[in-house]
Amino acid sequence: MKPNGSRSRFPDQGRLTTGLAAVFRENGTGNESVTVLRRQPNPYESTFPTEIVTCRVRGNGTPLRVFIKYGTRTFDGVYGHRGDVGYEARVYRDVLRPLRTSTPTFYGVYRDGTAGVPWLVIEYLKGGIQSSHSRDPNAMVRAARWIGRFHAANRRRYSSARLRFLRTYDAAYYAGWARRTRKLFAHLQNRFPWLLDLCDEFGTLTPRLLEAPRTVIHGEYFGLNIIYQNGTSWPADWQSAAIAPGEIDLASLTHSWPRPLVRKCEREYRRSRWPDGAPDDFPEILEAARVYMNFRWLGDPSLMTPQFGPGGRPMVPKKAKKFLQELHAVGERIGLVE
Predict the structure, then answer these.
(1) How far apart are CA 218 and CA 214, in angstroms?
(2) Predicted TM-score (pTM) of this structure
(3) DSSP per-residue string spanning 109-163
(4) Number of domains in the chain
(5) Which domain holds residue 67?
(6) Last residue of some domain: 106, 123, 140?
(7) 184 CB contacts (<8 Å, ≥6 apart)?
(8) How confident is the model at residue 4 (pLDDT cuts 50, 70, 90)?
(9) Are 70 and 11 in contact (CB under 8 A)?
């Protein structure tokens, strides 16, 4: 996450008003013009510019607060792990809205004729906090329950014609992350010889992921992407949604948390996804998902650019440390790291 940047990346007041009016006309919220009352920067944004807008749709005297994510001409989805704003809008419309579950209300998508990029307009959740920052000890466990139920609800839906737009993780996709990790950390071979070996051995684990039951996954199901409001989880940032084993989301949610909490989340996930009992191979699939998930971040060149200290000494990127630590622990548990 990074602080909101220059306002030049946002539409002016006239374009914003036009876009919101088009969205509300399309979904039937209102047939008249929209008045923008206030625009607030989102203090935390990642890939795309976002802002919070308070507006009034004529015919409804109550001000409405919406969250807008603006598309950009380029984005970091080159490896098939992330879609653009238009892709995320389809997730809200075709995957989430029919389920009527606790996700921000989807108001619509607007294609800005000036920039030629889509805007995603959804509900702003007032008073919510990121689950990983909540003081409620149950916040993460409830997030595990939410995603378990979501995976159960989509175990048959994912193959429907309506959801064919979703990306599907295949063998080439998984192999790419291990290959890029190996390339990015080759200069640290003397410090992490086990890492390069694990990159080479990852191919022995991918059949577990390819043969595991598939469903729709969030793709980046970390606590930072799950708004917690009055005891309810509201997952957001669906641009990495895909068809893959649900264990990948559980691996993301529980990454780097204390083992007692991880075990609670695992138990809640199993109960919510499989009320009659989890499959016998669930633990093995989850461990393989954890290996993939760490490679997913270690193999991202935009995050793990090689760094060098005084005298050209190779350094470990700060963001890499927690992923290296957990990857080593998983490798030990499954017998691929001594």
Answers:
(1) 12
(2) 0.91
(3) EEE-TTT--EEEEEE--TT-EEGGG-S-TTHHHHHHHHHHHHHHHTTTGGGSGGG
(4) 2
(5) 7-123
(6) 123
(7) 298, 299, 301, 304, 305, 306
(8) very low
(9) yes
